[in-house]
């Protein structure tokens, strides 16, 4: 519930930057793997990160300029990451270092 | 009564044995001039906690850190947590790049330091052995945070054993962090 509220806050805050063409890009975590593992997006899009796995995950980005920690997601929880800045960054999991996805955000 | 005494003694013994396993702020100091002398190399948004984390490294280590190599002995990393700005309607305030806007309100400080011999002195089990790294937590006023559970630092940073137990700095150096 708290995670959903944070996601809602983030999404609401990002709305002014979004355009009518903005997309919500689903990202899953089943089997301890982000899918898709390579994501092409544009500014204004959102990543909808859902933990459809059987254990906790924690979305994390270390890349300078994009660094964020979304906190622990229990199985069944979903969070959103607003993409408001162009660039390339790597999505990791704090708990499982083998989980990685590459996100490329374009103007 | 006797049973209570035995339990109390056992608990005391457990504390005495467990205490040396995790360092206290006595060994890892908060560098006094980190805000002016250290390199601010990254900041991490933490929207679920409404925090922004500023990441600093000491300049001596940063000068010689190389991509793909373990970090130099003497590396000191400081993580400075600030409250994020929240608007009147309760939403997190974002800048033009969608990043959280930090306030001046400091909520806590965390330090990790790498020194030869720290690991041997820690004498941790393999699942918590962070090599020669040690950790400390400080309150916003700079006093030691004696309530911090430093064992959580060791446990969580284990997941990044492949990049010298750091979540950001080793990777940022690999990514070409400017000198």
UniProtKB/TrEMBL annotation, chain A:
Residues 1-22 form the signal peptide. It comes from the Bacteria. Residues 7-101 form the EfeO-type cupredoxin-like domain. The keyword ATP-binding does not apply. Gene3D superfamilies: Cupredoxins - blue copper proteins. Keywords: Signal. The keyword Hydrolase does not apply. It holds the Pfam family Cupredoxin_1. This is EfeO-type cupredoxin-like domain-containing protein.
TrEMBL record, chain B:
It comes from Allomesorhizobium camelthorni. This is Cytochrome P460 family protein. Keywords: Signal. The keyword Ribosomal protein does not apply. The keyword Signal applies. InterPro entries: Cytochrome_P460, Cytochrome_P460_sp. Residues 1-23 form the signal peptide. Residues 31-168 form the Cytochrome P460 domain.
């Amino acid at each position: 519930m708290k995670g959903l509220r944070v996601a809602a806050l983030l999404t609401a805050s990002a709305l002014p930057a979004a355009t009518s063409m903005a997309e919500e890009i689903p990202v899953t975590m089943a089997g301890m793997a982000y899918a898709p593992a390579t994501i092409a997006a544009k500014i204004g899009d959102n990543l909808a990160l859902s933990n459809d796995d059987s254990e906790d995950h924690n979305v994390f980005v270390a890349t300078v300029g994009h660094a964020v920690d979304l906190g622990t997601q229990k199985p069944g929880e979903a969070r959103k990451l607003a993409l408001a800045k162009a660039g390339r960054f790597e999505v990791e999991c704090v708990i499982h270092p083998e989980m990685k996805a590459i996100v490329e955000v374009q103007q | 009564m006797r049973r209570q005494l035995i339990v109390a003694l056992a608990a005391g013994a457990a504390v005495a044995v467990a205490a040396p396993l995790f360092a206290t702020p006595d060994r890892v100091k908060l560098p006094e001039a980190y805000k002016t002398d250290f390199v601010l190399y990254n900041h991490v948004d933490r929207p679920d906690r409404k925090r922004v984390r500023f990441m600093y490294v000491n300049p001596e280590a940063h000068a010689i850190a190389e991509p793909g190599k373990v970090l130099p002995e003497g590396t000191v990393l400081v993580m400075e947590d600030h409250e994020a700005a929240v608007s009147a309607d309760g939403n997190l305030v974002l800048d033009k790049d969608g990043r959280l806007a930090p306030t001046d309100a400091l909520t806590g400080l965390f330090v990790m330091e790498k020194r030869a011999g720290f690991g041997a002195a820690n004498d941790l089990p393999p699942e918590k052995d962070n090599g020669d790294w040690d950790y400390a937590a400080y309150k916003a006023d700079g006093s030691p945070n004696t309530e911090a559970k430093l064992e959580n630092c060791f446990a969580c940073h284990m997941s990044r054993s492949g990049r010298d137990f750091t979540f950001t700095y080793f990777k940022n150096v690999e990514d070409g962090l400017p000198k």
